[in-house]
């Protein structure tokens, strides 16, 4: 039964201050978005005044609709300015080998990647069964794009030492039906940059587009290079690169959700558009998936770039680089832990040795000390790992994390692995996804502490241990069922 006093749609309106108080009460349940203790999902520069500026800019344009640039030319001007800034940063623009770079503002990296696949697919209408070649480390959004757009995905395995695809394997995966080849700068999971120059060359030789997913690193790699880091060529300076995605709500530190999809020239972007005139209403023309778009995120991104400036981003990248070094040294200093890859960008990824602690228990121990990290499950011979997305806000807390990592690792080692029943682990390793029943899912969820309507367990190690024992197809099905249990209607706001 709905609690009328806390219903989202009450019989009578609620005063503004009470509504805001309820939202603040709900927000208290969340992980902290500021303070340098959350190593995933949010990007915090710890710059005084930036939140207030971005919120004010957002409010100025929140009700402006990006559907029609002739009605709201302010958004067109800001979008073009954002694309111009990104093009200049990523090897395009006047005076470069890619002077005609164009682009669009999207709602996030996933939309940018879906549109990159759409543009490549629709530019080749003669191919009736299109395919895309991706490294196994490519972002899952490419699989989502393939699923939505009915494109086949051809994943290329990673070398276990370099965590990159071999260029020869990429070349061998290209078929006559291939419409796009993908590489990452860097990959999200491990933070390593794929051999973009060589992959783009084999794609160009086959007459296929090459997209660089720089959603994660596109706004930091150029600055890291200026700070002296060895950054391989990955942008429009590489002749075979035809499109690049970069998220402004990551290391450009704009509020969610703003990403950019850039194309080397307008002809390459043409197939990205959707237009429809065969109905009695207005002729629809969309450069992105959504039609109506709030101008709020675009204005907030524009304000953020203007406020921070090129020198501000260089300094934020320096702080981030220094924090990465401290965190990497912290991992090296703990017996039983090792880096999965030497940091090349803004990611620290580590795993445990044979004698080291259970990583899922370690993640819970870190959470108990106020650090929120991201566990990654085993995959194709690669070990389970812990991912740290490092931002500028981490810099003043990095030494504190180092001390807590040693303490948490010792505690996890003393606690030992999660003791899930052997028969349950065996079931996870052999059960077919289609054999899952509602009764079985409910029993598993209850045993793991997952409750309907939003109930979460205090510790996630049992959930992660079960998922880690399952092959990818069963992991997907289990997570769909678990999240479905959590996402149930309720009339209670708190």
Automatic annotation (TrEMBL):
Its cofactor is pyridoxal 5'-phosphate. Signal peptide: none annotated. Coiled coil: none annotated. GO terms for biological process: carboxylic acid metabolic process. The modification N6-(pyridoxal phosphate)lysine is found at residue 250. InterPro entries: GrpII_AminoAcid_Decarb, PyrdxlP-dep_de-COase, PyrdxlP-dep_Trfase, PyrdxlP-dep_Trfase_major, PyrdxlP-dep_Trfase_small. The keyword Transferase applies. Keywords: Aminotransferase, Lyase, Pyridoxal phosphate, Transferase. It comes from the Bacteria. One of its GO terms (molecular function) is aromatic-L-amino-acid decarboxylase activity. Belongs to the group II decarboxylase family. Sphingosine-1-phosphate lyase subfamily. This is Aspartate aminotransferase family protein.
């Amino acid at each position: 039964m709905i609690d009328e006093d806390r219903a989202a749609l009450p019989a009578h309106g609620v005063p503004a201050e009470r509504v805001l108080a309820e939202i603040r009460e709900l927000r208290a349940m969340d992980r902290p978005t500021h303070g340098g203790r959350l190593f995933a999902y949010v990007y915090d520069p710890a710059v005084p005044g930036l939140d207030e500026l971005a919120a004010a800019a957002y409010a100025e344009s929140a009700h402006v609709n990006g559907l029609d640039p002739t009605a709201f030319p302010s958004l067109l001007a800001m979008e073009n300015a954002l694309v111009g800034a990104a093009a200049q940063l990523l090897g395009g623009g006047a005076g470069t080998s890619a002077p005609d770079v164009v682009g669009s503002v999207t709602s996030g990296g996933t939309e940018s990647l879906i549109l990159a696949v759409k543009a490549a697919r629709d530019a080749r209408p003669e191919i009736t069964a299109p395919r895309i070649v991706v490294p196994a480390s490519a972002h899952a959004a490419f699989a989502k794009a393939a699923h939505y757009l009915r494109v086949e995905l051809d994943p290329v395995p990673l070398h276990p030492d370099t965590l990159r695809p071999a260029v020869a394997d990429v070349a061998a995966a290209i078929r006559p039906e291939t419409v796009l080849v993908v590489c990452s700068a860097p990959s999200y999971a491990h933070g390593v940059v794929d051999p973009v120059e060589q992959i783009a060359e084999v794609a160009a030789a086959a007459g296929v587009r090459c997209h660089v997913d720089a959603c994660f690193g596109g706004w930091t790699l150029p600055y890291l290079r200026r700070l002296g880091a060895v950054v391989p060529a990955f942008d429009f300076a590489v002749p075979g690169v035809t499109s690049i995605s970069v998220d402004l709500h990551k290391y450009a530190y704009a509020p969610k959700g703003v990403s950019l999809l850039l194309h080397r020239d307008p002809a390459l972007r043409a197939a990205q558009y959707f237009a429809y005139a065969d109905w009695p209403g207005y002729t629809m023309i969309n450069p992105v998936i959504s039609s109506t778009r709030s101008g709020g995120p675009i204005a907030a991104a524009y304000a953020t770039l203007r406020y921070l400036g090129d020198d501000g981003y260089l300094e934020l990248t320096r702080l981030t680089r220094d924090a990465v070094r401290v965190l990497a040294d912290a991992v090296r200093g703990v017996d039983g832990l090792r880096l999965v890859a030497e940091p090349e960008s803004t990611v620290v990824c580590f795993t445990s040795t044979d004698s080291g602690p259970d990583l899922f228990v370690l993640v819970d121990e870190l959470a108990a000390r106020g650090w929120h990290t991201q566990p990654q499950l085993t995959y194709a011979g690669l070990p389970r790992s812990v991912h740290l997305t490092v931002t500028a806000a981490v810099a003043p807390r990095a030494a504190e994390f180092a001390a807590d990592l040693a303490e948490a690792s010792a505690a996890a080692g003393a606690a030992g692995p999660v003791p899930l029943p052997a028969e349950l682990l065996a079931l996870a390793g052999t059960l077919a996804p289609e054999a899952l029943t509602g009764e079985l899912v409910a029993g598993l969820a209850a045993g793991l502490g997952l409750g309907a309507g939003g109930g979460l367990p205090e510790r996630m190690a049992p959930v992660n241990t079960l998922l880690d024992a399952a092959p990818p197809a069963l992991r997907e099905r289990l997570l769909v069922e678990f999240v479905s249990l959590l996402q149930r209607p309720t009339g209670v706001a708190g």
